[in-house]
Design a protein that fits this description.
Cys_met_metab_PP, binds pyridoxal-5'-phosphate, PyrdxlP-dep_Trfase_major, PyrdxlP-dep_Trfase, 12 strands, Aspartate Aminotransferase, domain 1, pyridoxal phosphate, Aspartate Aminotransferase, domain 2, alpha/beta, 5-stranded mixed beta sheet, 7-stranded mixed beta sheet
């Protein structure tokens, strides 16, 4: 099917998926095999060895490309494996400009793994995209942005970043994990590579770890496909199948994440013990105008601080919620609560994180799709 003629809600269900040619099975089978029989050397049906190709993965990759309005999708064993593949496009001496509020694991692979291979990273505030340009030099090869950022939900102007990337021939990578293609499609705004931890909203059910890249350029696709195969961080077919099943309901889940997110953000804002509430839908969010321009909704991610700004006060709230489970990760149907300073962002030195606004009492919510009144009641009794 030429899926690009359809709207996202249709593509999520149908893109890339055809009835199984041998049985007519409507759901793509899990091709649990490591190799494929050849009639004679080289005489095969496009599948030789399962690190290189797997039919379940092929269907998922095509679906991922379609929903991000891209041409090529590549699946990986995790979001970090996808990040690792993108980093391997670089060589020693290359420099990367990165948004300074980002997923802790991304910060870690850059500073602890690839920095030791001679790649230089500049972590900067991209609140004003125009500020990016002053960090570009002859060695700069890549611009890496996460928007909204994790966990401070800063919003970065993708189109303005793409303009700077184009001017200086940099690859623009956008980690679209938090927004998902339901809320924003970075390739449409000029990004070169869209990255996902499909573990989160795309999978949506907290039952799989998976990563994805989507690109439009065939030369870039070829390089990434080479890395995918030669480095081998590929997902198994069962995991591909779980993500394929998850994305079929992305739109209905995201719609509810957005509704619940708004109700909870407004509730928290009215709570006397709550300090700052960060949600991209608030008009006084520092980049709300950009969020409105590039996103189709504001999602279910909320961060807030307590007026009593210390780790113990935050831990006390976390220990009392019953519906919000204390856990890393996000984007599943169930609501989660986390404490970035001691969990996801513990690897960032305190001084650096506080400077960027990631204070001791900051609590991050991934609002699920339960009844919103039950969720509000849970937070009411936990905050006290
Ligand atoms: C979770 C996450 C990652 C890493 O993905 P994994 O699937 O856990 O390897 C990368 N970026 C963001 C924004 C994430 O939330």
């Amino acid at each position: 099917m030429n899926s690009n003629n359809y709207k996202l809600e249709t593509k999520l269900i149908h893109a890339g998926v055809e009835p199984d040619p041998t049985t007519g099975a409507i759901m793509t089978p899990i091709y649990q095999t490591s190799t494929y029989v050849q009639a004679a050397p080289g005489d095969h049906k496009g599948y030789e060895y399962a690190r290189t190709q797997n039919p379940t993965r092929t269907v998922l990759q095509n679906a991922l490309a379609a929903i991000e309005n891209g041409k090529y999708g590549l699946s990986f064993g995790s979001g970090m494996a996808a990040t690792d593949a993108v980093m391997k496009l670089l060589v020693p001496g290359d420099e990367v400009i990165v948004s300074n509020d980002l997923y802790g694991g991304t910060y870690r692979i850059m500073t602890k793994v690839f920095a030791t291979y001679g790649i230089k990273f500049h972590f900067i505030s991209m609140h004003n995209a125009a500020d990016i340009e002053q960090y570009v030099n002859a060695n700069t090869k890549m611009l890496w942005i996460e928007t909204p950022t994790n966990p401070l939900l800063n919003v970065i102007d993708i189109a303005a970043s793409a303009e700077i990337a184009r001017r200086h021939k940099l690859l623009l990578v956008v980690d679209n994990t938090f927004a998902s293609p339901y809320l924003q499609t970075p390739l449409d705004l000029g990004a070169d590579i869209v990255l996902h931890s499909a573990t989160k909203y795309l999978g949506g059910h907290s039952d799989v770890v998976h990563g994805a890249l989507v690109v439009n350029d065939s030369a870039l696709e070829e390089k990434l496909r080479f890395i995918q195969n030669s480095c081998g961080a590929v997902p198994g077919p069962h995991d591909c199948w779980l993500v394929l099943r998850g994305i079929k309901t992305l739109h209905v889940r995201m719609q509810r994440h957005c509704e619940n997110g708004e109700a909870i953000a407004r509730y928290l804002r009215s709570h006397p013990k709550v300090g700052k509430v960060i949600w991209t839908g608030f008009e006084d969010h520092p980049n709300h105008d950009i969020a409105k321009k590039q996103m189709r909704g504001f999602g279910g991610m909320i961060s807030f601080t307590l007026k009593d700004d210390n780790i113990d006060a935050a831990i006390s709230v976390l220990s009392k919620t019953k519906l919000f489970s204390l856990a890393e990760s996000l984007g599943g149907v169930e609501s989660l609560i986390g404490h970035p300073a001691t969990m996801t962002h513990a690897s960032i030195p305190r001084e650096d994180r506080v400077k960027n606004g990631l204070v001791d009492s900051l609590i991050r919510l991934s609002v699920g799709i339960e009844d919103k009144d039950d969720l509000i009641e849970d937070l009411r009794q936990a905050i006290g």
